[in-house]
Amino acid sequence: MVAEDLSAGSTARSALPGRTRVLLIEDDDGDALLVEELLLDAGAPFDMTRARSLREAREALAGIGCVLLDLELPDSRGLHGVHWLQETRPGLAVVVLTGISDEHLGEEAVGAGAQDYLIKGQVDGFLLNRVVRYAMERQRAEETQRQLREARLYAAENARLERGLLPSPLVSDRRLTVTARYRSGGQRMLLGGDFYDLVEGPDGWVHAVVGDVCGRGPDEAALGVCLRVAWRTMVLAGRPMTEILSAVQQVVENERHRDRLFATLCMLSIAPDRTRGLMHLAGHPQPLLITDDRLVELCAPVCLPPGIVHSVDWPTGDVELDESWSVLLYTDGLIEGKAGSGPERLGSDGLIKLIEKARAQTPVGSEPELPDELLIDSVIERARELNGGDLDDDLAVMMISCSAPGA
Asked: What are phi and psi of 116, to 5 degrees?
């Protein structure tokens, strides 16, 4: 066993391969020497570093597997050292060293977060070796359980937020079908503020929205839920689209958790005859119109997203559809990934090429059109492959398809 004394001015070294670094925080030279000898006699696979105070220990905690902590130090008394370690290095295994008269304090230390306690003068090397190893194993098990609990809570919270961001469409027209997908971006799969919704009004107009709150995390997701709920409420109340956009803007400005947070929106209102519509673009990617012989972007005047400036004018664009068509609305997470090994991004042109390629690969003898579910899944997977892995940003995709009358 190798021992270092930080008070001598040495810098803590990394443990040798296959060995664990143990930090002894003990100001009494005799007690410190006894611990070193006990571990040495037991042949414990530890490299020990000694600190005489919490101040010295602060510089030595990196890479430590377990701390042996005296409860009486020049800068610490009682449980202060345990609490300090919990705050400074949460998840670090701690074994308390206490005198016989302080046995009850050792028990309290375990309640405060230490893995075990030893009474000075009543321990041999083999016991000390075993206690340290068990303390590290217990700490690892507790950390695993903590992470599992956090993962379950995080998954449950994500599920609640997703239900708010991604509702079931309200549509009764049998000519219309709606297919939607949502993917969290990045390795941590943090839920963002992308959302979509679709509502058919009593007058036969069908209103669809896809939106994206900038940023990622529970605050952005919660704001996205607020925006979607406000949008659906106003649509069901039969309010004009410009009034709905103004209400969405007010929600952004009042509910955002930081200044300059904004949300982009694409709103498409489809007329009862299903051959035309009205569209609003607030800083959002243009949707794609897909027919038997066309694959083009739908165009409309673009205004700044709610939250960037306080808009009072929401320009509308007329869009021509067809008797049979599909419209793909999406957030920019779908097109901001890389288009290969270089720095080029997929973009809307790349997305159009992916759709064209997916449709061209429809097997001979199958249905004339690739089903919407397969088309969307194929495009998302291909975008992911081109990016070299998971897309960095969240994405929401909604495809609305209309069959020809009498079909």
From this structure: -165, 175
Cα angle: 272, vertex 224, 181; to 5 degrees: 65
Structure tokens given for 158? 């994500």
Tell me if 102 sits within 8 A of 53, measured CB to CB.
Answer: no
What is the C-alpha to C-alpha distance for residues 195 and 224, in angstroms, rounded to an integer? 6
Cβ pair 324, 292 in contact under 8 A: yes
Counting every residue written for the chain, the total comes to 407
- Whole-angstrom Cα distance, residue 126 to residue 123? 8
Tell me how crowded residue 108 is: count the other CB atoms within 10 A of its CB: 18
Question: What's the pLDDT score for residue 365?
Answer: 47
Identify the residue whose tokens are 């579910």: 373
In eight-state DSSP terms, residue 316 is: -
> Is the model more confident about 7 or about 30?
30
CATH of 166-402, one of 2.60.40.10, 3.60.40.10, 3.10.150.10, 3.40.250.10: 3.60.40.10
Domain range summary for the chain, segments of one domain joined by +: 2-146, 166-402
The confidence score (pLDDT) of residue 191 equals 66
* Identity of the highest mean pLDDT range in 87-91, 203-207, 211-215: 203-207
Does this model's pTM top 0.70? My answer is no
Please tell me the predicted confidence (pLDDT) of residue 19.
Answer: 80
Name the percent of the chain in helix, strand, coil, to the closest 5.
35, 25, 35
- Rounded CA separation 314/303 (Å): 7
Nearest residue to 288 via CA among 334, 229, 341:
334
The CB density around residue 122, as the number of other CB atoms within 10 Å, is 9
